[in-house]
Amino acid sequence: MSKKIRVGAIGCGYWGPNLIRNFIEIPNSELVGVADLDQKLLARMEDRFPQIQNTTTNYRDLFEMDLDAVIIATPPQTHYTIAKDCMEHGLHVLVEKPLTLNSDEASKLVKIAEEHKRVLMVGHVFEYNTAVLELKQLIDSGELGDIYYIDFIRASLGLFQTKANVLWDLAPHDISILRFLLGEDPLTISSTGMSCINNGIEDVAYTTFTFPNRILAHIRSSWLDPNKNRSVTIVGSKKMVVYDDLEPLEKIKIYDKGVEVIRRTDTYGDFSFSYHYGDMTAPYYRFEEPLREECKHFLDCIENGKQPRSDGKNGLRVVQILEAADYSLKNKGIAVSMNFETNEITSAF
Amino acid sequence: MSKKIRVGAIGCGYWGPNLIRNFIEIPNSELVGVADLDQKLLARMEDRFPQIQNTTTNYRDLFEMDLDAVIIATPPQTHYTIAKDCMEHGLHVLVEKPLTLNSDEASKLVKIAEEHKRVLMVGHVFEYNTAVLELKQLIDSGELGDIYYIDFIRASLGLFQTKANVLWDLAPHDISILRFLLGEDPLTISSTGMSCINNGIEDVAYTTFTFPNRILAHIRSSWLDPNKNRSVTIVGSKKMVVYDDLEPLEKIKIYDKGVEVIRRTDTYGDFSFSYHYGDMTAPYYRFEEPLREECKHFLDCIENGKQPRSDGKNGLRVVQILEAADYSLKNKGIAVSMNFETNEITSAF
Amino acid sequence: MSKKIRVGAIGCGYWGPNLIRNFIEIPNSELVGVADLDQKLLARMEDRFPQIQNTTTNYRDLFEMDLDAVIIATPPQTHYTIAKDCMEHGLHVLVEKPLTLNSDEASKLVKIAEEHKRVLMVGHVFEYNTAVLELKQLIDSGELGDIYYIDFIRASLGLFQTKANVLWDLAPHDISILRFLLGEDPLTISSTGMSCINNGIEDVAYTTFTFPNRILAHIRSSWLDPNKNRSVTIVGSKKMVVYDDLEPLEKIKIYDKGVEVIRRTDTYGDFSFSYHYGDMTAPYYRFEEPLREECKHFLDCIENGKQPRSDGKNGLRVVQILEAADYSLKNKGIAVSMNFETNEITSAF
Amino acid sequence: MSKKIRVGAIGCGYWGPNLIRNFIEIPNSELVGVADLDQKLLARMEDRFPQIQNTTTNYRDLFEMDLDAVIIATPPQTHYTIAKDCMEHGLHVLVEKPLTLNSDEASKLVKIAEEHKRVLMVGHVFEYNTAVLELKQLIDSGELGDIYYIDFIRASLGLFQTKANVLWDLAPHDISILRFLLGEDPLTISSTGMSCINNGIEDVAYTTFTFPNRILAHIRSSWLDPNKNRSVTIVGSKKMVVYDDLEPLEKIKIYDKGVEVIRRTDTYGDFSFSYHYGDMTAPYYRFEEPLREECKHFLDCIENGKQPRSDGKNGLRVVQILEAADYSLKNKGIAVSMNFETNEITSAF
Predict the structure, then answer these.
(1) Residue by residue, what is the 3-state secondary structure of chain A?
(2) Other C-beta atoms within 10 Å of B262: how many?
(3) Range(s) for CATH 3.40.50.720 in chain B?
(4) Residue range(s) of every CATH 3.30.360.10 domain in chain D
(5) Does B259 touch chain D (CB under 8 A)?
(6) Could you say which of B51, B246, B248 has the minimum Cβ distance to residue C50?
């Protein structure tokens, strides 16, 4: 590593400071400038991170700082304009999830990245999480057998947004995990929910997906739950796995429980016990901070011309799926399909 | 109490023995006869409960035993025929949930009960559970504020049935709780799921309901989950409640957490923290066995000519809702409405 | 098995009914008679178990019932007199723990059993518990490595006794498990505690044991704890195990964590991280009711002339250890040794 | 606040960086210099905290930096020499726990602080923890009733030290909490334990205390436990409290359970149910970082000439109690008393 990659940050509200801290701490990058509309936030950043060289309330000032890349952690409705502007000024871009709030803008960003040969990466941080990598390994190795269904819960008494609903806020994580685990896009999507607090902004949503090979997936998303809950349950024909992100040590538990189809006896007392229990194992994994892995991957892609795992196209797919889910949510949960080439949503009937 | 109520039991497979034990232990009833197709089960019952006076493999033999009432714990597809037969022979009937496997049969049973002036009660045992009564009290007293949504989970590595899917097996409990808590029938119902093990018999289902006053409800039903889970979460505008049936002591936890709508600040860093935390309380309740309460209620209705809390009409409503949910499940989760007078299901669009 | 073993029960207050139920349900025994001073308890037993043939308020009436054996579940201060009387009348005896409330009486019972060639067995039910058998297997197989220490907690908001303190009530279980696991008697014993509620009857006690091979053990016993807790932690040089009796399924968790002695670095920042983490496994065991296993073992010993696992001598040892612990408890926790031949307690200094 | 308090740090291994971070972030202090024997640790500090103005491998260089105060986070065996030196050079001192590894040195430091009129404060961080302050409030207000006993567990698979045993490493926290809660010193102390890994350095210890008013306390300290555990249970005559430091939100749970002394009935079935259950409440507290509160308190004492809550005398008492406990530990758990004036340990018999 000869020269440090010069990084600028746009947005330092909720998530931006975590990105800033990482690019300061990683040896082969330096955090050159930070932009935010709010002077107070900028002052707080300067105070906390003396390594920051410049701050500005106009992100376009960053274009004068001889940067290689920017990280964008602004509200999602601004992602398209800022990311486009940055790529057109020759910068590689790491943008927070969701990539945009609609598929057309996401498609355009993918095209712009290609035209300008810039790295466009989306902050789907769970694709860099050791636990998720282990889940994928459990699926791909066949250890779980055929996958029957995957159940996600992401709920807490949460941060509310006023421009995007709970799907756009929380489900990008689960959808990116789901696509990463299965390596497929969903055939159909349906979503039901309710806007309890803010009229028109759903804060609770239940979304169902069907995938090829008769795999079912379901995501429960809620900003309105008394208990924090971040879990993924994968049920396979051989084993079952629960990933609980809130467990301090034993995040992944593998259940050697199977189900056997047995004949029922023909009595009034009619139940057929047709499962078997087995051991539970919680393997030990050494965890790195997932965000650190994500940031290092971004730098690696810039230095070595690699395509990011969570590249623009990946980000586009997640946005397309969100758009379809949101359409279903607004239409009484009707099952829809997304044409991933044309961004068209059609009823799945 | 002068004379003991003479009770017969039909079906002593999985659940029947619990009913039998209760009617033996309750002072003002006696368990006169037990019928089951399986001789071995009958022998086991005689061995375990010497108080049983007669056993038979033909339930119609019970009609010769001068009974007042029967309890029916046979497979659901047989409920209609047996319950009808018993009422027509002048017996009061307590039948296990679900009342029947279709609305037409359930409607007929309700009519037969009226015509013969017999008590027809369905074993919706959770309506006799102290915890559920307390939840209703919390809602009705206004302590929770406006109800936003109710989330049910009923999952385990479970008992499989081969004639009825997971909805018909597990969801009757949740639907009866839901109707009991809200005192309303749902406006729309949609359900998605998958048959993983038995082709055609869904073992996993996700069902959404809308109720009057913009209340949302969701039931997750699964026979295929590594962990047993029986919980109800009620989110209100003032407080939130979680009822976890598997907790040995602190089954109900009340969270004094609310959400306040606050103005967002207009920066790149865009989240509005708009909730407040508060105390959590787990009130102490003295629990009676819910099934004991249910059985005592049945006897009370017989003795004093009362209408059961979970009467035939209640059981019919649950069957109607299940039928609508099942229809949606078979039709890609389309939102449907049930006409509770005519048993007609219509698309909710 | 030709003839059923004829069993009588003395005492049907708290624990007696569980024994009665088991001897009724096990095919090769019959429950002939029940004695208790309290008529009401006897009536309740007759009501619940019609299989009981006789009841009496005078336990000596049982001697006229042609019994083979008795089970004694009376208050511990009465064990000696009743057990002696029964053995002298030719009956085999299963007596609840603790065998007696002092070593001299326990020694005499052992001698009487030998003289009359009767089975004398103590209800150390945990020695018949699948989980404890698995713990022993883990130790004996060497899987845990050298045993460093064993920590017991047995606490709850409990049943209080007025003749015996918490040591005599709760610790017999832990001491019998400890002796069973290690196959050794303790070298020294010390115990500290307090009588919070009843003057003179300790309701909280902390007891430490040293065993050969520098193994430490500690038992926390409490009738006064807001949470129920029943756990055993075994720390070995290779692995660690936690047995939590209150877990419904995963009662035993094996931690593949070890400790390596490493050299410390010599800086102001002085800590040496010298452990390694590893997988956790919760093996699946099929559990039988431990009390059922205990009762079957008692019958097996009678039929086949076997020595019980928890025989009189075993019960004597537990009483001797309790006596020593109680002496320490009354003497500011001084470490003492018990001479198991002479019942003499000496200071361990 | 006019002038910032100039702070130096000695030791930046395990805990030092946390103190450094706080004195950097608190507005009215600045972190002028850091000393450590290890150049690599110093380089890491400079990298992480560019706000640090000077570093040195010789702590006496700090005396040339016009400091007001130092924070000492070196191994405990060095505390005495360094703290003495610093106070004699006119600096206020915040030293990590334990103050020293023997009472005589601790006594001398207290005297030196008085003579030089310097603030001498010990890092008993739990005395600045919101949860502990709430526990004290619960005791002092009488809400718990009379205190019966307090049970501490502090266990994990831990950091090992080679100069001081687990008592000196972990128990200072619990002893400082205990003294803070009860406002008393213990009458007697006894401790038993074992050195499992390092010969001569106990890694497991069980320590019992008696306090005035017949209050019992017990501390379980372990570096060798598969599960991390940090809990305090306080049992009073009216209520019981559990403080679980590892719970993310509901750290304190108050149990409205009491015990009533009732007369026993005189039957063979002998148990007296003499407790009552009640509600459990987990009050919501807003938590500040306890270390931040501690650091601010230190600065406040310097600026305003206040005596610290955890002053030198407090630190001395904790060391005296540790010394007595360690004496007992080395002498088979004999109960001892400490003469807090003369540092003399006597047998409690």
Answers:
(1) CCCCEEEEEECCCCCHHHHHHHHHHCCCEEEEEEECCCHHHHHHHHHHCCCCCEEECCHHHHHHCCCCEEEECCCHHHHHHHHHHHHHCCCEEEECCCCCCCHHHHHHHHHHHHHHCCCEEECCHHHHCHHHHHHHHHHHCCCCCCEEEEEEEEEEECCECCCCCHHHHHHHHHHHHHHHHHCCCCCEEEEEEECCCCCCCCCEEEEEEEEHHHEEEEEEEECEEEEEEEEEEEEECCCEEEEECCCCCCCEEEECCEECCCCCCCCCCCCECCEECCCEEECCCCCCCHHHHHHHHHHHHHHHCCCCCCEHHHHHHHHHHHHHHHHHHHCCCCCEEEECCCCEEEECC
(2) 12
(3) 5-124+291-310
(4) 127-290+319-339
(5) no
(6) B51
Chosen from A51, A230, A284 to mutate, greatest number of chain D CBs within 10 A: A51
pLDDT value, residue D163 = 79
Does the structure show a pLDDT above 50 at D167?
yes
Provide the pLDDT for residue B148: 95
CA distance B11 to B20: 10
- What's the confidence (pLDDT) of residue A266? 40
Domain covering C127-287+319-339 in this structure, CATH number = 3.30.360.10
pLDDT of residue A102: 95
For residues D257 and D277, the answer to whether their CB atoms sit within 8 Å is: yes
Question: Which of A15, A192, A204 is best to mutate for the B interface (most B CBs within 10 A)?
Answer: A192
Ranges for all domains in chain C classified under CATH 3.30.360.10: 127-287+319-339
The superfamily CATH assigns to domain C5-125+291-306 is NAD(P)-binding Rossmann-like Domain (3.40.50.720)
With an 8 Å Cβ cutoff, are B269 and A160 in contact? no
CA distances from C342 to A9, C100, C322, C337 (A): 81, 17, 15, 12
Chain C residues touching A283 at Cβ < 8 A: 279
Asked if the model's pLDDT at residue C266 lies above 90, the reply is: no
Neighbours of chain A (3+ CB pairs under 8 A): B, C, D
What class does CATH assign to A5-124?
alpha beta
For an interface test with A, the pick among B10, B215, B270 (most A C-beta atoms closer than 10 Å) comes out as: B270
Cβ C12 vs Cβ C278: under 8 Å: no
Q: Where are the beta strands (DSSP E) in C256-298?
A: 258-259, 275-276, 280-282
B159 → closest Cβ in A235, A241, A271:
A271
Q: Is B233 on the interface with A (CB under 8 A)?
A: yes
CATH of domain D127-290+319-339: 3.30.360.10
A228 contact residues in D (CB cutoff 8 A): 248
pLDDT exceeds cutoff 80 at D199: no
- pLDDT tens digits, one per residue of B163-198: 789 999 999 999 999 999 999 999 999 999 999 887
Q: Where in chain B is the domain with CATH 3.30.360.10?
A: 127-289+319-339
Q: Which fold has domain B127-289+319-339?
A: Dihydrodipicolinate Reductase; domain 2 (3.30.360)
Chain C hits for D35, Cβ within 8 Å: 268
User: pLDDT tens digit string along C138-192?
Assistant: 999 999 999 999 999 999 887 666 778 999 999 999 999 999 999 999 999 999 9
Domain limits, CATH 3.40.50.720, in chain C = 5-125+291-306
Global ipTM: 0.92
- Tell me, yes or no, if A300 comes closer than 8 A to chain D by beta carbon: no
Mean pLDDT of all residues in A137-149: 96
CATH 3.40.50.720 residue spans of chain A = 5-124
C48 vs B: CB within 8 A:
yes
User: What is the CATH architecture of B5-124+291-310?
Assistant: 3-Layer(aba) Sandwich (3.40)
